[in-house]
User: Fold this.
Amino acid sequence: MSAYFITGTGTDIGKTWLSCALLRHWRAEGCVPQAFKPVLSGFDMATAETSDAGQLLAALGREIDAAALDDIAPWRFSAPLSPDMAAAREGRHIDFDALVSFTRRCFAERTRSIPVNTAGHAIFPVLIEGVGGVMVPLNETHTVRDWVAASGLPCVLVAGSYLGSLSHTLTALESLRKVGAGVTAIVVNESPGSPVSLADTIATLRHHVGGVDIVAISRDAPQPGIEALAFLLS
Assistant:
């Protein structure tokens, strides 16, 4: 599988930063990755370049214009709220079936015939970035977790190392497993100013994640973690 769903334990945990870092790494290695952020709240066209979708487009080396935004982030909302609330503010509604169909097309059309490099790694990886945390509502009946499960994609769960992250991470993992969503890796993105060390966070998680790969992203030296995750996902 060369397509993955990037989800997280909560909002502002580093999903977009991680996705962009992976895209830049793969491009530097000669790959031709693709990335999508189908649902995006808090979007303002005047500052599109700083939005999650804008950052993904920049990492892909693409122009940030209306057509490109429509291509990778068709469900855009102005209010910086959960998708269901943001959509309601605009008198809109996220059609879950349409969202799942769009998501599947994003990777199905691009992974039907995947070229590989000399090391046997796919050179056309696809990332689907979710919105908020695992249990953020998309509409009255569906959450991001339902989206992950319906997509059929394995996922990368992005977490932090802040105090309380252990519970949030294990709860998110259990939630995903409950609906049969496969978790390929947990990425612990080091939280600034945390009284808990990155190493201690990972050591404790290893006792409870049932063999899921854990990748550490240090704030001072993130590249080794990015390279390790990129290899794992290739």
